[in-house]
Design a protein that fits this description.
Largest sheet: 3 strands, antiparallel
Shape: elongated
Strand content: 35-45%
Order of helices and strands: EEEEEEEHHHEEEE
Number of strands: 11
Helix content: 10-25%
Structural class: alpha+beta
Length: about 150
């Protein structure tokens, strides 16, 4: 699927280009040493790369999709996805979330994101952090005890 990955026909290098799934089939013709063979695998890409950051899908990072700000922050700090150690992931800033929205939401929609209030690491005062609506781009403060979607970045 060209929207998910491309394969260089000369080198065989696979380049990820978007979120989704694609079936990859490798074949080897018979030669003097080996019989013909073929294998197939499904490659699923679940992360979005935008603005030089890798983003987790905002409605799958925590159980139930949404959480309080403290749970969101702790979840990102403890995340070990993509072989990275805890502390490699973090909540995005409100400016990073705004830039993600500005880059276009079609890739987010295609990947199954929920385009609603998503927590940021940017503080708006004691017990209040900003969130960004990924459907409208609006930035607004929310009580840390409220609930929002969570996307971690690295």
């Amino acid at each position: 699927t060209a929207g998910t990955a491309t394969i260089n026909s000369t080198t065989g290098v696979i380049t990820l280009v978007g979120v989704g799934s694609t079936v990859i089939t490798a074949t080897q013709a018979a030669n003097g040493n080996y019989a013909a063979s073929s294998t197939t695998t499904t490659l699923t890409v679940t992360y979005v790369v935008s603005g030089g950051l890798t983003w987790t899908k905002n409605n799958t990072t925590v159980a139930g999709g949404t959480s309080s700000w403290t749970t969101a922050n702790n979840t990102c700090a403890a995340l070990t996805a993509q072989g990275l150690s805890a502390g490699s992931w973090r909540l995005p800033t409100k400016d990073e979330l705004t830039a993600l929205f500005a880059a276009g939401t079609s890739v987010l929609s295609d990947a199954g994101w929920t385009l609603l209030y998503t927590w940021s690491a940017s503080t708006a005062g004691a017990g209040i952090h900003y969130g960004v609506s990924l459907g409208t781009g609006l930035v607004f403060p929310g009580s840390d005890s409220g609930y929002g979607y969570v996307s971690c970045v690295h």
